[in-house]
Every structure is written in C-alpha cells, then in structure tokens.
Specification:
A four-stranded antiparallel β-sheet has the order 1-2-4-3, sandwiched between helices. Helix content is 41%, strand content 12%. The chain has 241 residues and is an alpha+beta fold. Helix 2 runs antiparallel to helix 5. The radius of gyration is 21 Å and the shape is globular. The structure holds flavin mononucleotide.
Length: 241
C-alpha cells in the first residue's frame, strides 16, 4: 500500500481512483487483436478475488474461455435470446428500430471471455450474513465482477457484460455442475478507444439520472434536497441538545 503507514491515500491516488471509476465503460466493439497476457490477467483476477463476500464465502469462480467453438455456441444462444427481445418490442416501432441498431456483445471479437459463477454450496450451508438474505451470495459475486471491471479499466482493457444469453445454454456448454449458477458472461480485450459516454446514452436509449433524484434523506419520501436535509439535521441537533 502506498500513501502512509495508516493506509491513507494521497490526493493524486484518490484522483486516479475516481478517474478509473468514471471512465469505465461497458465495451462491445472496437476490439483489437492484442492478447491479454497471463500476468495482466492474473492481476485483474486478483482484484476480483479480493472483493468483499458475505461471511467471507468467496462464492465465485472465473471460467476463462478462449476456445472459438464454445464461443460460437454461446453466440448462438445470444442470437436466439436477442430475437426474443426483438419480439417483445413488436408493438413499439421506434424502440425496436433503436434496439436493432445496438451492438450488445463482443463474444467473438474480444480476446477473452470470462463466465463468473456463483457456488451456493461453498463453505455452506451456514454462512454468516446469508441466513437472512439468501441473495447476499449473488451480491458478493457482483462485487467481484465490479472489481474485475475496474481493474481491467485500469489496465486499459475493455469489458462488456452480456446478459442476453440463456443460463441453461451456458451451464451445458461450460459443463457447470448443478449447484453452480452463471452470474455474468464477460467479453474482455484491448480496444481502439474508450467512449466517454455509455453507448445506451449516446444512442438515445436512456440517459444518466441526476444524482439528486436517487438520493433520499432519512426515508423513502424524505425529500431529495441536501439543503433541506441540512436544515433537518440542525433542528434535530438543537432538539437533542
Ligand atoms: C447486470 C448487467 C447486465 C448487462 N447486460 C448487458 C448486455 O447483455 N448487453 C450489453 O450490451 N450491455 C449489458 N450491460 C451493460 C449496460 O448496458 C451498461 O452498463 C449501461 O448501459 C451503462 O453503460 P456503462 O457501463 O458504459 O457506464 C449490462 C450491465 C449489467 C450491470
């Protein structure tokens, strides 16, 4: 750890950290042929493996896929699922047109595919923190995926998450044992450039909400204004004094 002996980060380190977060993108195109070396790959996977996990259960596995045959089968599953999605948009011509223009995977063009899985049985059945909220195991895998995504961005490697794949197909193609569930299918590779905005924003599908719209103060209906909240806190402090 850099910074100092009590684990504090410098201003420059903080700046870099936020820069990585804000410039991470979901990447499905512009892949180049450069191979991800095993050294870089292990650094990225080490970051993923250091994610928090409920009860320290570390319920993830990372299946590394380079074989073109497996990828072709997985792409087939994607194509079938994509068609189902298109059918659901039959009544909405404008959205359907936009959807057809979207590139939603880079399964064959990327250098490496990774399937991140969840093993409910690992260290179980008693897992601290998972007895009340069963999904906490899957949340842990998502923490690992986000670490992987950010570490890849720090290495200038693009990552795209493809969820338009049937899990039954993934289980069959990757020979997953029955308690193991696929959580994410990721396509990784060096690319020509990182976009500044999410593709779904630049292609007018949806845009980022204002931060203040997603912060609630004290309760769900507690308002969305930081200024009002400051006033509330001051009144509360005076009342309790
Ligand atoms: C759980 C999850 C599933 C996703 N599935 C897909 C997908 O199937 N295809 C795709 O192109 N992007 C997929 N994405 C990427 C999102 O579309 C993307 O994160 C979002 O548009 C914001 O863009 P950004 O990641 O570049 O900030 C997925 C993201 C998450 C977190």
């Amino acid at each position: 750890m850099t910074g100092n002996r009590i684990g504090l980060f410098t201003e420059i380190e903080k700046e870099i950290f936020y820069k990585i977060i804000l410039s991470r993108r979901d990447v499905r195109r512009n892949f180049i042929r450069k191979k991800i070396s095993n050294k870089v790959l292990l650094r990225i996977l080490t970051a993923a493996h250091h994610a928090p996990s409920v009860g320290y259960s570390q319920p993830w596995n990372f299946i590394l896929i380079r074989d073109r045959n497996s990828r072709l089968k997985i792409k087939e599953s994607f194509s079938k699922e994509r068609l189902k999605s298109i059918e659901l948009l039959a009544m909405d011509k404008e959205r359907k047109r936009k959807y057809l223009d979207l590139k939603l995977e880079g399964i064959l063009e990327s250098n490496l595919n990774i399937c991140v899985t969840y093993d409910h049985k690992r260290f179980g059945p008693y897992i601290i923190g998972r007895m009340t909220i069963k999904e906490a195991g899957i949340y842990s895998v998502c923490c690992a995926i986000q670490n992987l995504w950010l570490a890849a961005r720090a290495e200038n490697i693009g990552v795209g998450w493809v969820s338009i794949i049937n899990n039954k197909d993934l289980k069959r193609i990757l020979k997953l044992p029955s308690p193991v569930k696929p959580i994410a299918y990721l396509c990784l590779g060096y690319i020509t450039k990182f976009e500044v905005e999410p593709d779904l924003q630049s292609q007018n599908w949806l845009s980022r909400l204002d931060l203040e719209k997603v912060i609630n103060y004290e309760q769900w209906d507690g308002g969305n204004s930081l200024k009002d909240w400051e006033g509330f806190n001051q009144r509360l402090t005076r009342k309790n004094a």
